[in-house]
Amino acid sequence: MTNNPIAPPPPAKKRKTSLSSIPDDFIVNVLARISISQYRSLCLVSKNFYSLLSSPDIYFARSLIGITDARLYVCLRLPTPSSSSHRHRWFNLGYRQGQLSLVPVRTLSSSPDRLNSTSVAVHSEIYQISCRAVRVLDCRSRTWRPAPDMMVARKHARSYFLDDKIYVIGGCKENWGEVFDLKTQNWKPLPKPPSDHDHKGVVYGGRLYAFTMNKNKNYAYDPKEERWVQEAGFVGLGRITGPLCVIGNEIFAEHDRKYTWYNPMNGKQQETQASLVCGG
Questions:
Q1: Helices (H) and strands (E) in the chain, counts
Q2: Which residues of the chain carry a pLDDT beneath 70?
Q3: Cα–chain center distance at 184
Q4: Could you give the CA distance from residue 124 to residue 267 in angstroms, rounded to a whole number?
Q5: Which of 47, 50, 71, 165 has the fewest other C-beta atoms within 10 Å?
Q6: Whether the model pTM is above 0.85
């Protein structure tokens, strides 16, 4: 009897899984849970990853699971190659071909005049108001859509967002201001403060504040009561000609190469010389 040893079975072949065999919906769901800071590296993995990370689907998926990111949008005045005129273009700081860069946003056929317009951020959208026309930039899909026109035409108006409503002030002598309700999609006149002075506004602590050159003529608009009340604080902010910005509990402004910040909680106001800091 011949003793023949049993040959071992051949090694099993490793099964390779191709990314192309995984549904895009599943990949988007996974990528949405990864920090956006890693997207630049992920764009280099495959063309499919780059396509998915560049599409609006990834931002809709992140919003559905409660993950949101602050994104930078800028509007630049650029020369037109075919003429001596200029046009305004919107850009988003994002990833393009794996690099962090300014990605152009598709414009409407009738782009608003940025010089005479005012813009305000509303959740994941930017409302741009020019004359009477209102256009909305959806930052998730990077597309524009029209919104209901204002009641009157305005130039160099100022806009603010408070309690799901957009307040537009100035730019028209006959109509001091108006307010847009996002729920009803309707505009209505905004009552004028008792003072006839020119106003500078800011949203702070759930109210819309209007400051004047007269320290005794500052007012706050309560959206719940829909009326103005005289405000004794915020002394000196009416004399600042530059735009106001709220960061945390303080109000900041920049004018004539000087930074001013004011804390309404303790009434302290500070000022420093502005300087340009460059880093290598």
A1: 4, 19
A2: 1-20, 37, 68-69, 81-87, 94-100, 107-115, 195-199, 212-216, 232-243, 254-257, 265-280
A3: 22
A4: 33
A5: 47
A6: no
